[in-house]
Write a structure and sequence with these properties.
Distance between the termini: 31 Å
Strand content: 5-15%
Radius of gyration: 19 Å
Order of helices and strands: EHEEHEEEHEHHH
Number of domains: 2
Number of strands: 7
Structural class: alpha/beta
CATH topology of the largest domain: Alpha/beta knot
Low-confidence stretches: none
Largest sheet: 7 strands, parallel
Number of helices: 6
CATH architecture of the largest domain: 3-Layer(aba) Sandwich
CATH superfamily of the largest domain: SPOUT methyltransferase, trefoil knot domain
Strand order of the largest sheet: 3-2-1-6-4-7-5
Shape: elongated
């Protein structure tokens, strides 16, 4: 799975607060290889229940930000373009935008959608065409459509054909995913992770007593 992770594809959840939506969004992220999600927590904090997320919180970390401006600043510093799904004037059909470049999908809260601040900060607005009487989709459903379009585009140009993580980050995550309790202990003791051998084991001589 690490070979397929996309470090330059992510979501930014702006005060998405319903636990089932948070969980569904993270499941969508894991399904297309998102490495890390971002969130501006709502009042009361961010609650992601392990049960409804099918354990994806173990594989898709969530980086929390103080506010939306701080989140966008951090993402732009890492080279991301901010794409907001909102039916505003000038918004493009979401299927006609290139997501092979570093992309962060901005998602608004369930009640108010994307805020005026979020729209002002976005680099691009996209729209999901709809012909029914309902004006918008559930936030997790909309996220699924956006992410799977990005997945389709990236797969078509071979972005899933080779590992895309920095080798050092790859080794770190491999150890943490394979040996979570041991990794926690080593972090607590401020010790380096030992290498994982080809058979998946770790040399006992390199472990703390």
């Amino acid at each position: 799975m690490l070979d397929l992770r996309q470090p330059d594809l992510t979501v930014l959840m702006d005060e998405v607060h319903k636990p089932h939506n948070l969980s569904a969004i993270l499941r969508n992220c894991d399904a297309v290889g998102v490495l890390e999600a971002h969130a501006v927590p709502p009042q009361g904090g961010l609650d992601i229940p392990d049960g409804s997320s099918a354990g994806t919180s173990k594989w898709v970390s969530v980086r929390r930000h103080r506010d939306l401006d701080a989140a966008v600043t951090a993402l732009r510093a890492d080279g991301f373009r901010i794409v907001a799904a909102h039916p505003t004037a000038g918004a493009k059909d979401f299927r006609k935008v290139d997501y092979t470049a570093p992309t962060a999908f901005l998602l608004g809260s369930e009640l108010r959608g994307i805020s005026d601040e979020g729209l002002a900060l976005a680099d691009q607005c996209v729209v999901i065409p709809m012909v029914g009487l309902v004006r918008s989709l559930n936030v997790s459903v909309a996220t699924s459509l956006l992410l799977f379009e990005a997945f389709r585009q990236r797969q078509a140009v071979g972005m899933y054909d080779r590992p895309r993580l920095d080798p050092e980050r790859y080794r770190t995550l491999l150890f943490e995913w394979a040996y979570p309790r041991l990794a926690r202990r080593l972090r607590d003791e401020k010790l380096r992770y030992p290498p994982i051998r080809e058979d998946g084991s770790v040399d006992p001589a390199l472990l703390p007593r």
